[in-house]
Amino acid sequence: MMRTIEVLLVIIIITGASITASWFAVLPQPRQASQLNLRRLALTTLEMLDQDHGLSQTAFRTAGDPAWSQLQAALSGSLPPNILYNLTVYNTTSGAALDSISNAQTLGVGSDAATYMVASSNVTFNVAPQKIGQQGNGGGTLYILNCSDSNGWWITGYTANSLANDLYNLLSPYFQVTIMVQNTTQLGQILNGTNISTSPYENVTSAVVINTNGEAVPIPSGYYNTSGYDNQQSSYAKYCYMLGNATLTYNWTWVSIVGYPLYYVCNTGLFQSASNQNGFGIHGMIMVGPAGLNAFLEGLSNQTYSYNGTWITDSYTDDPGLANVGLSSNTLYYCNYYGIYPSVYQTATRALPTSILSMYKLTVASYILNQVDNWCPGAFYNHIGSGAFMALGLARTPDIRLTAIGLLAAYRPSLYRSQYTASGTSRLVVLQLGQAGGV
Amino acid sequence: MPEATIDHIVSLIALLGAILIFIGLFNQTIQTAVVYEEHAYLATECSDLLDSILLNPGSPSNTTLYWGTSNCTPTNFGLQDPEFTQYELSPFSLMRLFYSPGSSVYYDKTNAYYSNNTLTLGESLLTPYNEVVNYTTVTQLLGINGTLGFSLALTPLVSVITTQTQSTNLSLTVTVTSNGYPLANAGLSYCLIAVSGQGSYPSFTIEPGTNTTNSQGQALLSFPDVDGTKEPYALMVVCASQSGLLGTGDYEHALNNESYAIPLIADFGNQSVLIANSQDVYLQNNPSSMSYNATFFLLTHGFTLSQMPLTNPAGNIDSGPGTSYGNITIPTNNPGILAIGYNVTNPDNTVSTGVTLMPWGISPMPLPVVLGGNPLQSDWVTEDIRQVTVNGISYQAKLELWSLQGYTEISQK
What we know:
The structure holds 2 protein chains of 2 kinds.
Chain A: H1 2-24, H2 30-33, H3 38-49, H4 54-59, H5 66-78, E1 83-91, E2 97-102, E3 111-119, E4 127-129, E5 141-145, H6 160-171, E6 177-181, H7 184-191, E7 208-211, E8 216-218, H8 223-227, H9 237-249, E9 253-256, E10 264-266, E11 285-287, H10 291-300, E12 325-326, H11 329-338, E13 345-346, E14 352-353, H12 355-359, E15 362-367, E16 375-376, E17 378-383, E18 388-392, H13 400-411, E19 415-417, E20 426-435
Parallel strand pairs in A: 5-6, 5-7, 7-9, 8-10, 9-18
Antiparallel strand pairs in A: 1-2, 1-20, 3-20, 4-19, 10-11, 12-13, 14-16, 15-17, 17-18
Chain B: H1 2-54, E1 88-89, H2 91-95, E2 105-107, E3 112-120, E4 123-128, H3 135-142, E5 148-156, E6 159-166, E7 170-178, E8 181-182, E9 187-196, E10 203-212, E11 218-223, E12 233-240, E13 246-253, E14 261-267, E15 272-277, H4 278-281, E16 289-299, E17 305-308, E18 314-318, E19 326-329, E20 336-345, E21 351-360, E22 369-372, E23 381-390, E24 393-403
Parallel strand pairs in B: 1-23
Antiparallel strand pairs in B: 2-3, 3-4, 5-22, 5-24, 6-7, 7-8, 7-11, 9-10, 9-12, 12-13, 14-15, 15-19, 16-17, 16-18, 16-20, 20-21, 23-24
């Protein structure tokens, strides 16, 4: 009898354990086993209704406006018949509910919601760039060489004037003042450190100078024509030396947009002889050759002028890796930031050697294009003292967007965007969905 | 002694009985939990799979080669428009999907079978088997071959129904609804093509226009210069409601339904379309000769229809033996509608005229898209829904998913 009593006790204990386990083992409701992803359905419904900004416009309408009944018809029409909904529009500033539409008093036993921010169509969102030079980051003045008395070379398909205008449109928002250097006389003035405009922001020191003449560079008559001429070598390489030295003295950034920098000098008023052409029929232009760039770098690094006619660049014909060279990751990042999108791949025919870094005390501030072996197809160089040099050793035709993005990636002016949370300009739409029926 | 033995036996039997009952009780709980887990897994998988199909353009989808506009078999399956983000689908990748509910069509002049997505007579999309992406390929690309079955359906959210209210001095009533709810104040952009059978080849009269629906979602379109009893015509409509729903609709009125022109996709990559005689496609026994003239209407970004000229748009087709069919090339990579006017010379030398339509890209005409298997034999089917747009037109995407392997350790059957 005792065994039976013991077993009854055991059965009572197990029963107690079973009841306790059943109490805590809460099984899900049948509906939870396989329910619609209501959150996703709500989000895609809101996105679809706003694809033509219809939802945004309705969210700013007053209560009772016919647009609300049209929105309700669209909601009822686009959602399956067994879906219950409640759409509420909130003021983002106060958090107050402004309007609400629904097709049921309650949303059943389970519901889910998606939120969607809409902006008023009456609001314009602005992007204001920081001005270069505003916060001591150098170069508040941009000089674009647009000399009417100079021709360009290696800018096939364009003129220096058209490139200058494009550059003005692209870059002037980022500088405190942008000045078109209209002729070689004005170029001579800034080489002398003299302002050429009445703008209070013009500052020759720390300016950026973009040469839009391609492989040619304008040369002023007078002092620069005489002192810049190397009588011994019968070359204007010495003028290029003076340009490099001015870049050092005034802490300029000298920008070469395409090809072999400073390969010719040009002044249509000065070089009027029929023989004064670059060998390809462009008059008013005299070849300097590779000596021009070598002399410029000597001037930039404050070395003594010494004529050096050695060709220092490399082309894709010698190094196939230069045929299809890509934008650097840094440049790609700033392409997205500033919204300037040149072709990702370029062909280099005048890539500069890395040996110039040690030879002329330069450092690479930013690579515009990826370095290939020991060659830099496009880079922004800082001189160790002052002055900078940006060179794009690419094949013609020049892409002026590369020049713009190269400069912006080096100076990195910030973009200030107006905020969505400005009072009254945005509203929050919440769509809550549930399923009709019981559990 | 016997009392003790009886005591032992009774207690042992009671204990064993109690244990068996408790095992059964716990087993019931565990079974329910396992089945719940299986169903919950299917529901999660369904949602993930639907998003992975709708938010991924598939491969290849680069600037030089996109599987939706070429003949290549995708190496990764997805329907998102590669030029957009979010739930915007490509009208061309949808056009390459096999239409599961349709009855296949065999055309002996090309010795090919065609996937058949026919809305009504004269409004169809026929795509060759060797160019469509079928269910088996998609299950393999999604990595669910042999484990899960699915059915993907895309249905236009807006219904645009046209009825002829007056034939002479033609007037048409267009009714715009969504799920039965009328869309009031919806903007309509339409284009009527009336076909004239005069001359060697049919010619078109095109009347574009705009209108707005009333509170019942209806708009009356009048074409006093068109006599619907003598001229076949087709109406193409794009509807944009103020609340953001966009839809398309079309209506085709032919005077002869015995023989008609049927467009067949020939090559997605070359954008070429064959024009066949229905007598050859459906093996009817009323031989006829046919002349046709085709034109193309581009669905612009502003949701209007703009006519584009075709190169060599006209030709002749004779039914019966031979290789007689027309061949035209669609001049654009953008969605639109190919309209073909035709003159049929019947055996009794009478001439009847008609017009047929074919979408280029799935969205310009309200064709549904259904790709998938049949879930009838499965224990449990789960589904999920998203709202999507196809070239701006509102669609609802529904995925049904089921297991092909049954339940594992414990079956609920």
